[in-house]
Amino acid sequence: MKNLYVLIIALVMIALPRPDVYAEVKPITSIELIRDANSLDGSVITYKGEIVAAIMKRGDHSWVNLNDGYKAIGVWCKTSSLSDVKTLGDYKNEGDILEVTGVFHRACPEHGGELDIHAEALRIEALGFPVEERVSMRRVNISIAFFIMALLAIFMLRKRL
C-alpha cells in the first residue's frame, strides 16, 4: 500500500508542470548588453524595445534600431519578419514595441565590427500610436514674462549709458 502511495505521488510530480520551464524570459537591457558585452558575445539573448527611425532594407534582410529607453541597439533581421510593423518611432509617433531573440555580437565580423543582434525570432508586443504634443500655457506665460523683463532690463541699461 505504501508503494502505491509513492507511485501515485511520483506520477503526480511528473505530471505537474515545472515553473522554470514556463517562466518568461526576461529581456536584457541595452545597459546590460554594453556593460557585459564580452561575456554575452555570441550568446542568444532576448531584447525588447521601440522600433525607431527607419527600416533599412538590404535585400532579404533589414536593419532596424530598437530603443529600450536607454540606448538603441541595431538588429539584423529578415525583412519578411517586419511585415506587420505599422508604426516607427519618431517625434510624432511612439513606435511598435518589438521583442527580439537572437545572437548578440559585441563586434560583428559580418557588419564591420558593429555591436548588433542577429534576430532569430521577432514578435510585436505592442502597437505604436501617435503622440500629441501639448504646450503648457503656464510655460508660455512664464516665457513671455521673462522676455518682457529682459527687454525692460536692456532698455533701462541703455538709458543709463
Describe this structure in words.
The protein is α+β, with helices and mostly antiparallel strands and 161 residues long. It has a domain at 25-130: OB fold (Dihydrolipoamide Acetyltransferase, E2P), CATH 2.40.50.140. Helices cover 32% and strands 36% of the residues. The chain is built from five helices and seven strands. A hairpin with a 2-residue loop joins strand 1 (44-58) and strand 2 (61-67). The N and C termini lie far apart (109 Å). The mean pLDDT is 90.
Fourth CATH level, the homologous superfamily of the domain at 25-130: Nucleic acid-binding proteins
Distance between the termini: 109 Å
DSSP strand (E) fraction?
Answer: 35-45%
Arrangement of strands in the largest sheet: 1-2-3-6-5
CATH level-3 fold name of the domain at 25-130: OB fold (Dihydrolipoamide Acetyltransferase, E2P)
Tell the overall outline. elongated
Largest sheet, described in full? 5 strands, mixed, barrel
| Radius of gyration (Å) | 27 Å
